[in-house]
Amino acid sequence: MDSSAVGYKKLFPQNRIPTILSCLLKAGTTLQKKTPYDHEDHLTRRLCARLILFPVFRDGPLGIHPQQEILSFDQDADKPTGRIDILISCGKGFHVYFAIEAKRLRTISPKGKSVAGNSEYINEGMMRFVTGQYAPLMESGAMLGYVFDKNIIKARFGIDRYLKKKEKELKLIPPIKLIISKILPNEQISFTNHNLDNRKFKIYHTFLAV
Known about the structure:
Elements: H1 17-28, H2 40-51, H3 55-58, E1 63-70, E2 82-89, E3 97-105, E4 107-108, E5 114-115, H4 118-130, E6 140-147, H5 152-165, E7 179-180, E8 190-195, E9 200-209
Helix pairs in contact: 1-2, 4-5
């Protein structure tokens, strides 16, 4: 990490996170896959088209940036460190954002095979927060699971089981499971806590039946 980023203290406003998660759930009620093999990027683009209609995004102070390229701290790097599926900005600068990474769960392959998607959700999703690829200066982010067979209970159970296999790599703080959050008392939002090298980090988990 570049020396100019050391000691960076601006954080995404925590009081905005319940609003973001609530809007995700509300927008997700009308989001449906077009085919059994619908790509997650397409779903995310259609989800963002719904989100920008909510006043907090339409009028500010929050902004939605789908497939946002993340620049490296190395000023001479030719490639980004990655692309976040949904980046929520808040007007506090380039590095202050709430990142949402989306993955498909419980899909069917073109050959008709069931695909749980747990490995992709954890190894190619959660792990990007743990390694600092996403939100390296923040204290929280979110995972979004598109549940293709609409069975959110089984989707959560599958993630829970896989978490136990990846406890050390994910630097999880017990309990090693999806913990029900009180951030939205009437909704099934979960979270996991992670003890990273330089900070504690919380990942919220939201699932949409598509």
